[in-house]
C-alpha cells in the first residue's frame, strides 16, 4: 500500500512538472490507460520585421498509436495586427524512451501589418478518443509578437549616399534662393502691368476696328466686324466656340447656359441683323448699325450693369 | 452692291406655297421623320437624287411613295433584285411579227419619280445603267436615245445592316447622289402615334396637291436665291478641309481621311443650301443653311482610311469634325 502511494506521488510530481510549459489533456473520467495528450502553441520569434513572417506552430502530442485520437479540423487562429500568409500540417511518429509518440503539427505563417504588438488569440482544439468515443477540448494560450521596422531585402544596397545627394541639393537650392531674394531686395521694383479684362480688351479692339465717327464708314464691313467681335467675346466669356457656331447654334448654347433673357434677345438682335446685312447683299443702314454698336459697347463698357449670367 | 432681296422674297413667297401643302399631305401618312421629308423636298427643289440609308421599317419607301402621290406625276417603284437586268430597268427592243420591225419598249425608268428600292441588291451592271441615266438624264435603247422626263428624281434606298448577297455601290457611283440620308428611329411619342394611325381600319391617303410645272418654277427660284461670296468661300473651305485638313488646323484628320469630297460636293452643297433657304422662305443663304445640309451632302463623299476604321471613326464623324471646326463667316 505504501509503495503504491509512493508511485502515485511520483506520477503526480512528474505531471505537475510539465504544467508551466504545456496545456494538458483533460481526460475527465477516462480510464488510466488513456495516453496523455499535450497541446503546445509557440511562435518562433518574439520580434518580427514588417517585411518578414513569424511562424505559429500548434503541436498535439501523445504516446501510442497515431490513430488513438481523432483531431477535428483546426480553424485559422484569430490574429490581431497580423495576417495569415501560409498554412501547413504534418503527422509523424517519434520515439521517446523506446515508446512511440504520435505528433500532429499545424503551422501558420503570419505577417505583421503595422509596427507594434501583434497577437494570436487562444485556439480551441477538439479531439476524440477513438477507444472510448469521448470528445475533449483543449485551448492554447494567447501569444504575442512585436512588429519592428522592416529589414533591407537581400541584394538591396544601402542608399545613404542618395540621402547625402538630396541634402546637398537642398542646401544648394536654399543658398541660391537666398541670393536671388537679396538681389531683388536691392533692385528697384518694376511696376506690374495691370491685368486687362476681356471686356477692356474687346472694347479696345472694337474701337480700333470700327470707327463709328467716320463719315465714310464701310457699312457692310462694319457689320461683319461687329458680328465677329461680338461672337468672339461671347465665345470667350461663356466658353463656347463662338466663331465656329452659327447664329442659331450660338443662341441655343447661350440659352442652355440659362442666361438672362434680356441679354439673349440683345445677342439675337445684334447677330441676326448683322447676318441679314452680311449675307443678303444689303448695304445696311447707318442708324441701325450705330444702335447695334451701342448695344455691344454697353456690354463691354459697363459690365457691372449688364444682365449677367445666372450660372 | 445691292441685291434686290425683296423681289426674291416675293417670288419665294409665291412659288413656295405648295411646300406647306406637300408637308401637310405627307404628314397625314408619315409620323415624324421631319428630317427625311425636308431632305426629300430639298432633293426635289435642287434637282438632286437622294440615297436613303436606314434599317428596314423606318418608312423610307412609304415616305417616297407618299411624296410622289402628292405630286401629280408619274411614279415608278423598282424593286432591285440580284436577277434584275439593265433591260428590265431602261427598256428593250421588241420584235413585232406583224410589221417585221423592232419596236422600243420603254422601261420603268421613264417616270418622274423613281423609287429604286434596295439598290444594293442588284448587280453592278444594273446599278451602272441606273446611275448613268441619273447623270445623263437620257437613255439609249438600241440606236435611239430618249430624254428622261423633267422633273426626274431618283430616290434610292439601301439597308446598311445586311451585307450578304448585296453589291455595295462604288464610291464613284455614290457620288452621283446629291444627298445621302441616314434615316433614324422615331421617338417614343412618334412611335405611339404610328401604331395608333397605322392600325386603324382606314389608313389616311394623301391627295395630289402640286403639279410638275410648279416644281420646275420653284427650281428656277431656288437658282435665284442669293448667295454671298462669304458663303461661297465658306462652302469651299468646308470641302477643302476634307481634302487638306492640315491647312485648317485639323492635323489629326490628315491620317484619317483617305479621299476628301469632290468638286461635285461644292456644287451640290451650294444648290442644297439654296433649296434649304427656299424652304425657310428666305431669299439669301446663311451659314445655318450650309451647316444644316452639309452632313447629308458630304457623308458619302469623304472616305475614311483604315486607321480611322480601326479607331471606329466613320465618315460621318470626320465630316462633323470638319464642319464644327471651320470658322463661320
Description:
The complex is a heterodimer of chains A (311) and B (329). The radius of gyration of chain A is 46 Å and the shape is elongated. The N and C termini of chain A lie far apart (106 Å). In chain A, helix 3 packs antiparallel against helix 4. Helices cover 39% and strands 25% of the residues of chain A. Chain A has two domains: 130 residues, Sandwich (Immunoglobulin-like); 104 residues, no CATH class. Chain A contains seven helices and twelve strands. Chain A has a five-stranded antiparallel beta sheet with strand order 1-2-4-8-7, with no helix packed on it. Chain A has a four-stranded mixed beta sheet with strand order 3-12-9-6, with no helix packed on it. In chain A, strands 5-10-11 form a three-stranded antiparallel beta sheet, with no helix packed on it. By secondary structure, chain A is of the alpha+beta class. The model of chain B has no long low-confidence stretch (mean pLDDT 88). Chain B folds into two domains: 181 residues, Rossmann fold (3-Layer(aba) Sandwich), CATH 3.40.50.300; 101 residues, Helicase, Ruva Protein, domain 3. Chain B is of the alpha/beta class and 329 residues long. Chain B contains 14 helices and eleven strands. The interface between A and B is medium-sized, with 16 and 21 residues.
Amino acid at each position: 500500500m505504501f509503495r503504491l502511494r509512493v508511485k502515485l506521488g511520483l506520477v503526480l510530481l512528474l505531471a505537475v512538472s510539465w504544467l508551466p510549459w504545456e496545456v494538458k489533456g483533460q481526460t475527465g473520467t477516462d480510464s488510466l490507460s488513456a495516453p496523455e495528450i499535450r497541446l503546445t502553441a509557440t511562435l518562433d520569434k518574439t520580434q518580427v520585421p514588417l517585411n518578414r513572417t513569424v511562424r505559429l506552430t500548434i503541436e498535439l502530442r501523445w504516446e501510442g498509436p497515431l490513430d488513438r485520437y481523432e483531431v477535428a479540423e483546426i480553424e485559422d487562429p484569430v490574429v490581431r495586427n497580423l495576417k495569415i500568409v501560409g498554412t501547413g500540417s504534418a503527422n509523424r511518429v517519434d520515439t521517446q524512451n523506446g515508446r512511440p509518440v504520435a505528433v500532429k503539427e499545424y503551422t501558420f505563417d503570419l505577417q505583421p501589418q503595422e509596427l507594434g504588438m501583434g497577437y494570436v488569440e487562444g485556439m480551441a482544439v477538439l479531439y476524440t478518443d477513438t477507444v472510448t468515443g469521448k470528445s475533449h477540448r483543449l485551448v492554447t494560450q494567447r501569444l504575442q509578437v512585436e512588429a519592428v521596422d522592416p529589414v533591407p531585402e537581400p541584394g538591396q544596397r544601402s542608399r545613404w549616399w542618395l540621402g547625402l545627394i538630396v541634402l546637398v541639393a537642398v542646401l544648394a537650392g536654399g543658398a541660391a534662393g537666398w541670393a536671388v531674394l537679396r538681389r531683388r531686395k536691392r533692385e528697384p521694383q518694376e511696376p506690374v502691368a495691370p491685368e486687362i479684362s476681356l471686356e477692356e480688351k474687346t472694347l479696345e479692339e472694337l474701337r480700333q476696328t470700327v470707327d463709328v465717327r467716320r463719315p465714310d464708314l464701310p457699312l457692310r464691313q462694319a457689320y461683319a466686324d461687329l458680328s465677329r467681335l461680338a461672337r468672339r467675346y461671347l465665345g470667350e466669356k461663356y466658353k463656347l466656340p463662338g466663331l465656329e457656331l452659327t447664329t442659331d447654334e450660338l443662341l441655343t448654347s447661350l440659352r442652355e447656359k440659362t442666361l438672362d433673357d434680356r441679354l439673349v434677345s440683345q445677342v439675337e438682335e445684334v447677330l441676326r441683323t448683322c447676318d441679314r446685312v452680311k449675307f443678303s447683299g444689303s448695304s445696311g443702314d447707318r442708324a441701325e448699325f450705330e444702335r447695334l454698336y451701342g448695344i455691344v459697347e454697353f456690354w463691354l463698357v459697363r459690365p457691372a450693369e449688364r444682365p449677367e449670367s445666372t450660372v | 452692291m445691292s441685291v434686290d432681296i425683296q423681289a426674291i422674297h416675293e417670288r419665294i413667297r409665291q412659288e413656295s406655297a405648295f411646300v406647306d401643302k406637300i408637308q401637310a399631305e405627307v404628314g397625314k401618312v408619315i409620323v415624324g421623320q421631319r428630317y427625311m421629308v425636308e431632305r426629300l423636298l430639298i432633293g426635289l427643289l435642287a434637282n438632286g437624287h437622294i440615297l436613303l440609308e436606314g434599317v428596314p421599317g423606318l418608312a423610307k419607301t412609304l415616305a417616297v411613295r407618299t411624296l410622289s402621290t402628292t405630286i401629280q406625276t408619274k411614279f415608278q417603284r423598282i424593286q432591285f433584285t440580284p436577277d434584275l437586268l439593265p433591260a428590265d430597268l431602261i427598256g428593250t427592243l421588241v420584235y413585232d411579227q406583224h410589221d417585221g420591225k423592232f419596236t422600243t419598249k420603254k422601261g420603268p425608268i421613264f417616270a418622274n419619280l423613281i423609287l429604286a428600292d434596295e439598290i444594293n441588291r442588284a448587280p453592278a451592271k444594273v446599278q451602272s445603267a441606273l446611275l448613268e441615266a441619273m447623270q445623263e438624264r437620257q437613255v439609249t435603247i438600241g440606236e435611239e436615245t430618249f430624254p428622261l422626263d423633267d422633273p426626274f428624281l431618283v430616290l434610292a434606298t439601301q439597308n446598311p445592316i445586311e451585307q450578304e448577297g448585296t453589291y455595295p455601290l462604288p464610291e464613284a457611283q455614290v457620288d452621283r447622289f446629291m444627298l445621302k440620308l441616314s434615316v433614324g428611329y422615331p421617338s417614343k411619342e412618334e412611335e405611339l402615334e404610328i401604331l395608333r394611325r397605322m392600325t386603324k381600319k382606314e389608313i389616311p391617303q394623301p391627295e395630289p396637291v402640286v403639279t410638275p410645272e410648279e416644281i420646275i418654277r420653284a427650281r428656277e427660284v431656288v437658282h435665284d436665291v442669293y448667295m454671298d461670296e462669304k458663303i461661297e468661300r465658306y462652302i469651299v473651305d468646308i470641302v477643302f478641309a476634307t481634302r487638306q485638313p492640315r491647312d485648317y488646323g485639323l492635323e489629326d484628320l490628315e491620317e484619317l481621311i483617305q479621299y476628301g469630297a469632290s468638286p461635285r460636293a461644292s456644287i451640290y452643297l451650294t444648290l442644297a443650301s439654296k433649296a434649304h433657304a427656299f424652304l425657310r422662305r428666305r431669299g439669301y443663304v446663311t451659314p445655318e443653311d450650309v451647316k444644316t445640309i452639309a452632313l447629308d451632302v458630304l457623308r458619302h463623299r469623304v472616305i475614311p482610311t483604315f486607321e480611322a476604321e480601326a479607331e471606329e471613326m466613320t465618315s460621318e464623324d470626320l465630316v462633323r469634325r470638319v464642319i464644327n471646326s471651320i470658322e463661320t463667316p
